[in-house]
Amino acid sequence: MDVNAAVAAVAAIAGVLTGVIAMLAFRFSEREQRRPTRTSLHTDLVLPPGVDTVLSVLRSSAVVLDEADGVVKASSAAYALGLVRGGKLAVEPMMKMARDTRRDGEIRQVELDLPRRGTGRGEALAVSARVAPLGSRLVLLLVEDLTEARRIEAVRRDFVANVSHELKTPVGALSLLSEAVMDASDDPEAVERFAGRMQIEATRLTNLVQELIDLSRVQNDDPLEDAEPIRVDELVAEAIDRCRHQAGAKEITMAAGGTADLRVWGNRGQLAAALGNLVENAVNYSPARTRVGIAARTVVQPGGDLIEIAVTDQGIGISDKDKERIFERFYRVDPARSRATGGTGLGLAIVKHVAASHGGEVTVWSAEGQGSTFTLRLPEARAARERAHQMSHRDDTEGLEDEAGRTSHPSPHSSDPSAYETLPSPEVLP
């Protein structure tokens, strides 16, 4: 009996102790839950009032660091640029700037080139970083992405340099020829010869200035403000008339087919200039006694039908490396031939901008020694007009963006000349 009583007493004491321990643990847990966490201290107590709201509306990437170099606050753009990783500032030069600013309170700014995350091409990300003290213990880092601005500036510099070079050539030639005319004033034949050369250079200069004006216009104007349904056969006829003299001099046959009853939607002047540039290039880069074909067809698309106008030549063709650059301003596949024909290197750049501004695109198929096919894809007139009418009555912003995306990026199709072999008998235009 004594043994059982002792066991019962021990069990009772153990139960009491367990209850006391459980109660103490519960009280400790409640205390810990009420205690502010490190994160809440940072966001609720450390940041000055209103700073969080201001940082959320800044266009620059923003990072707030505490006295231990920990990230208190970081915008989504900072994570997207790879500035913050694992709760730490991942760019060592910026970290050093923050520490120096925390030490002496001075505002610092520097431009850096950072490796771009997720690419294996070694492209640099150009940023401008500015560090300033925020209160007594925090440091604010603002980072602005300058990559696109630098790219645009580089394009602008190249454009100015190319324009200067292209203008210098005919202007210099005119200067030399005028001196030659003065020196040969007593030689009528020489004067006539030099005057003819001056006319050629003056024409080249005029064409260059006009194409610069055209390029500027198609980049800045909205062609759809004066849009109208345009017959494709009228555009083709105008393009052929524009090149009839050059084609006749080289005995090149121009043939058009499949253009009847097709209409596109856009600015007549810009579309005529774009198609004329394609046909003119085809004639200039084709050998004598060959053929240039212009064919059109309708392509059914879920977002609206497209009209494809293909210009095919039997010329020298374009290499793969040149195909990536032919739509750049002033780029020439064959500079010597461009000089001989008066080409400015702006024709295809104009075609590209006209196609894009009309919600279409231009593509090229080519093989060296086998010729080339440039395909201009534009919205069909009725589909484009119906789509514009629907968009004008739609209030849903997401629906508008989706419709515009489908219009601006049609699905690609083959530009191989064989795709147009089933067209009706073409009208041969000598």
Beta strand count: 15
Number of helices: 14
Class from helix and strand fractions: alpha+beta
CATH architecture title of the largest domain = 2-Layer Sandwich
The CATH homologous superfamily of the largest domain is named Histidine kinase-like ATPase, C-terminal domain
Oligomer: single chain
Low-confidence stretches: 32-45, 395-430
Report the radius of gyration as a whole number of Å: 35 Å
Strand content: 15-25%
Would you tell me which CATH topology of the largest domain applies? Answer: Heat Shock Protein 90
CATH C-level class of the largest domain? Alpha Beta
Q: Kindly report the spatial arrangement of strands forming the biggest sheet.
A: 13-14-12-11-9-15
Proportion of helical residues: 40-55%
Would you kindly provide a written description of the structure presented here, covering whatever features stand out?
The chain is built from 14 helices and 15 strands. The protein folds into three domains: 42-145, 2-Layer Sandwich (Beta-Lactamase), CATH 3.30.450; 147-220, Helix Hairpins (Orthogonal Bundle), CATH 1.10.287.130; 223-429, 2-Layer Sandwich (Heat Shock Protein 90), CATH 3.30.565.10. The protein is an alpha+beta fold and 430 residues long. The chain has helices at residues 2-34, 38-46, 51-57, 76-80, 92-104, 147-183, 188-220, 232-249, 268-284, 320-323, 335-341, 347-357, 381-392, 397-408, and strands at 61-65, 71-74, 84-85, 88-89, 108-115, 124-134, 138-145, 228-231, 253-257, 263-266, 291-299, 306-312, 361-367, 371-379, 427-429. A six-stranded mixed sheet has the order 13-14-12-11-9-15. Strands 2-1-7-6-5 form a five-stranded antiparallel sheet, with helices on both faces. The longest helix has 37 residues, at 147-183. Helix 6 packs antiparallel against helix 7, helix 8 packs parallel to helix 9 (268-284) and helix 9 (268-284) runs antiparallel to helix 12 (347-357). It is elongated. Residues 32-45 and 395-430 have low confidence and may be disordered. InterPro entries: BphY/WalK/GraS-like, HATPase_C_sf, HATPase_dom, His_kinase_dom, HisK_dim/P_dom, HisK_dim/P_sf, Sig_transdc_His_kin-like_C. Residues 383-397 have a biased composition (Basic and acidic residues).
